[in-house]
Amino acid sequence: MAPPTPYTPPWWSQLRPQLEPDRTPRVRLLVVPHSGGGPNRYLRLVGGLPADVEVLGLTLPGRERRLTEPPGATLEEVIANLGTTALPTVVFGHSLGATLGLHLAHALGEHCLGLVASGQVPRGRGGRLSEQSSDEDIRLLLELGGDLPPEVFKDEAWRTALLSNMREDLKLGAEAAERGAELRIDAPITVLCGSEDRLVDSAALAGWGAHSTAGCEVQVFPGGHFALFDPVNRPRFVKAIEDLLATAPTLVNTRRT
Fold first, then answer.
1. What tens digit of pLDDT does each residue of 179-191 get?
2. Distance between CA 35 and CA 13 in Å, rounded?
3. Per-residue pLDDT tens digits for 58-91
4. Which pTM value belongs to this model?
5. CB 183 within 8 A of CB 156
6. Domains and CATH numbers, the chain
7. pLDDT in tens, 124-136
8. CB contact set of 122 (below 8 Å; sequence gap of 6+)
9. DSSP state string for 146-185
10. How far apart are CA 203 and CA 185, in angstroms?
């Protein structure tokens, strides 16, 4: 008797219910979160997109609905779990998610409408920290991001979980950066960043253009590393996503049988 097939939890999930479940989506948005985070927080940002947009979020092991799983993922696993799709797709990634998003956009090939890279410089090598960095250095990095409630590090369980996730994400980010140094996609890249982001060298943002054969636009907004979650900035981030989604071919939306 053959051994049972190991259970592989889904890496992507619907971030919102289909408003019209009997209809096939026209386009798809893939949401790739920042280091240490999961996709649910992004629903407030993208939940108002039109009903014909399927919104999927990437959940890495060790967070949100996969909280009980040991953290850690390889770039190959992230790409392999993308699956196949014929839907025109926009990839939206923030921070680490932008670095991973370049690989996902490349894997989508002709089905990729574009990449929205938020809060990240194009990386051809590892960032300022690595998985071997001290707990204190990681804590300081999180403080620079400006979005960490102080009580998180006061709770031992949450502190341990966050540091474990961060170390694995630093490892994943370094792998993605090294392997993506020469990667190019045949779709436009829109780069978004807060003007007071202490984790990003704004002078380097235009370097994303080297990763696209279809052009690159840089937009800078007020705010820090998580400027995308500021309600004041939200409409401009959503517009950047909608502009790429709007480039999809217009098709008659048919009902599922």
1. 999 999 999 999 9
2. 18
3. 999 999 999 999 999 999 999 999 987 779 999 9
4. 0.90
5. no
6. 12-245 (3.40.50.1820)
7. 655 666 666 777 7
8. 204, 207, 208, 210, 211
9. T---GGGGGSHHHHHHHHHHHHHHHHHHHHHHHHTTT--B
10. 22
